[in-house]
Design goal:
The protein is mainly α. 63% of the residues lie in helices and 0% in strands. It is built from 25 helices and no strands. α9 (208-222) runs parallel beside α12 and α18 (332-342) packs parallel to α21.
């Protein structure tokens, strides 16, 4: 064990890291033992079958919302001992730029051609007029057609959504989904024409294709601000959570996107959490495709801007899987931002430490990309600001050399946070740190 009281913690003016006598082989052995601890299984794995979707899906509109991540940080966080506003504002800055913008594309299924083919080839089972034969996959066509030319198509689709024939509902929902993809004024027209109330019952359809198209149609419609309140008022949140639990892989990730879109209305976040969205989001985080995992991370973050949803996420076992994502790379930076949010409640801090989060963050500072180093040191500040035990564990994990290196060669934000964290460790050494060392030795 590395003794905290005997570990020289250099000031921010120390010349280099190579002069720090620390037993790296011992620290690495501690990490190896911890990394072999099996990760927990989700609470209800059997109810959420693993998705086997490909990962070549186009980006959803979620990336365009990433700049809003961390828009709200738990008020209690900035009040904790030693955690000043610079840490909180640093997390805000980091989360706002943790992804480049992608093209604004709401429908992420990659199934547009298949859906259009289905709507053209299936014949209706009723004497009512069939839907017009339009190539709805052609963005050029839909972008140039006058709104008045599309209005009859919209009205006929809405009529067919109310029919008793499942096949017609499926085809009409697929058409609404495609129509709502391309244009703001068309989304507004569809919402104003009464599509929302007749789409919502289809979220509980036993036909997977119908449910999937209804979910995605509502996602696409929700991109229009005037439709968000209408979708909420019509009672869509609970059925969307149902689709998140029971749908196809595409339906689940698009349901997550739709809930994210609705959560842009602050009052909806508590309702979405109370309706049970957190556990299936954690399941999507575990079992989803790469796209699904990213959607789950983003939606969890937005929902966890309120304290009760942070507690729900911890109770649902999110922390262990998030720490695993940090260690695996790929989505590690986004996972760190969500962990930073969950660290805003005591239960979250405790779970992060128990699941090996300090170890994972130290390794991210050592070996990760520049942006990952910034995220990692920001969360470590949250964990260690008011915990002598966590500071001692941080030293035990060999954090001093990489923190010193970061304080000298990192970005401006990373340097500032690394220096602050090293300052905490110096305070710990000066105070003796006896109680923390005794606890670690047990």
């Amino acid at each position: 064990m590395v003794s905290l009281s005997n570990s020289p913690i250099p000031s921010s003016h120390s010349p280099c890291t190579s002069s720090i006598p620390i037993n790296h082989s011992l620290v690495r052995s501690v990490r190896t033992v911890r990394s072999n601890i099996p990760h927990p299984e989700p609470d209800h794995p059997s109810s959420e079958p693993e998705c086997d979707l490909g990962t070549s899906l186009t980006d959803s509109f979620i990336d365009t919302c990433l700049c809003e991540l961390a828009a709200t940080v738990a008020p209690s966080a900035s009040k904790s001992h030693g955690l000043d506003n610079s840490i909180t504002s640093g997390i805000l800055e980091l989360s706002r730029d943790f992804s480049d913008y992608s093209s604004f594309n709401s429908d992420i299924s990659g199934e547009l051609e298949r859906l259009a083919s289905v709507t053209r080839s299936e014949s209706p089972n009723s004497p009512s007029p069939d839907l017009p034969d339009l190539d709805l996959t052609s963005s050029e066509l839909l972008e140039t057609m006058p709104l008045e030319s599309l209005e009859p198509v919209v009205k006929l689709c809405i009529e067919k959504l109310s029919t008793s024939l499942e096949e017609e509902k499926r085809r009409a929902a697929a058409r609404i989904r495609l129509l709502a993809k391309h244009r703001s004024d068309l989304r507004e027209l569809i919402g104003a024409s009464g599509a929302i109330p007749v789409l919502i019952p289809l979220l509980k359809s036993t036909d997977p294709a119908t449910q999937e198209s209804a979910v995605t149609a509502l996602l696409n419609l929700s991109l229009e601000e005037t439709n968000k309140a209408a979708i909420t008022t019509a009672g869509a949140i609970k059925p969307l959570v149902y689709a998140l639990r029971t749908g196809t892989g595409i339906a689940k990730q698009n349901a997550a996107c739709a809930l994210l879109s609705l959560s842009m209305i602050e009052d909806n976040r508590a309702t979405i959490g109370a309706c049970g969205a957190i556990p299936p989001l954690v399941s999507l985080l575990v079992h989803g495709s790469t796209r699904g995992k990213k959607d789950a991370l983003t939606t969890l973050y937005k929902l966890c801007s309120i304290k009760r949803n942070k507690e729900r996420a911890v109770d649902a076992g999110a922390v262990g899987w998030l720490v695993r994502l940090v260690a695996e790379g790929g989505l590690s930076e986004k996972a760190m931002v969500v962990l930073g949010s969950l660290a805003g409640v005591p239960e979250g801090k405790e779970a992060i430490v128990e699941e090996g989060g300090i170890q994972a963050f130290v390794e991210a500072i050592e070996d990760g990309p520049a942006k990952g180093k910034e995220f990692a040191v920001a969360v470590l500040l949250q964990l260690c600001a008011d915990s002598g035990l966590n500071r001692a564990l941080l030293v035990r994990e060999g954090a001093i050399p990489p923190l010193v290196a970061l304080s000298q060669a990192g970005s401006a934000r990373a340097k500032q946070k690394a220096e602050t964290l090293l300052g905490y460790l110096r305070e710990q050494r000066q105070d003796g740190g006896g109680a923390a060392q005794t606890s670690l030795a047990r």
